[in-house]
Amino acid sequence: MRLYALPALLIVLGACSPTLNWRTVDVSGTPLSVMLPCKPDQATREVDWGKGPQPLAMLGCEAGGATWAVSHLLVAQPTDAPAVAEQWQQALQKQLQLPRAVPGSEPFLIKNGLELPQARAVAWQGRDAQGNAVFVDARWFVRLEGGGARVYQAMVLSPGKPVDRTARDSFVQGLQLHSM
Predict the structure, then answer these.
(1) How many other C-beta atoms are found inside a 10 Å radius of the C-beta of residue 61?
(2) Which residues are CB-neighbours of 108 under 8 A, at least 6 positions away?
(3) DSSP 8-state secondary structure symbol assigned to residue 176
(4) Which one, of 57, 65, 24, lies nearest residue 158 by Cα?
(5) Is residue 18 scored above 60 in pLDDT?
(6) Most buried residue among 29, 99, 145, 173 by CB atoms closer than 10 A?
(7) How many other CB atoms sit within 10 Å of the CB of residue 24?
(8) What is the mean pLDDT of the chain?
(9) How far from the centroid of its chain's Cα atoms is residue 125's Cα?
(10) Region 137-159: what's the mean pLDDT?
(11) Dihedral of CA 12/23/153/82: which sign?
(12) Band of pLDDT at residue 2, cut at 50, 70 and 90
């Protein structure tokens, strides 16, 4: 099974201004809103997280030399959400050509999200498919939804150097799970 979340996220690159023009965007079909520095595009692709193909929805754009993206998928059984988040994290590690044991993970708690060990924030430096240095700052979080659970990934990917901390913090603080 190959999990290519990172290339899928790159599909959503939009034609955005190179400057950071922040706006609040509601993520369609979810209770999430996000602050993005550019006008986002949307895409969906099928991924197999071990329970058969499922649609992975993505929203993202490119600004300031970085890709800013939020992805999500709904799992039918809430008990499957931790494993899905873990597999997603491992897929990103593989894409970035990182070893299995990667430091830099810390808990990520978001209001109205589930407190799970797999709800994490990471800042990793890795390599893209061409071997160039890339930096990723990613967050995974989960929310119960109906009889299932929605697993989210919010990520900033930048080649060569990490994004400015202030811009990254604006993105992370703009992640809002609203009450249903």
Answers:
(1) 23
(2) 119, 120, 121, 139, 140, 141
(3) E
(4) 65
(5) no
(6) 145
(7) 10
(8) 87
(9) 16
(10) 96
(11) negative
(12) very low
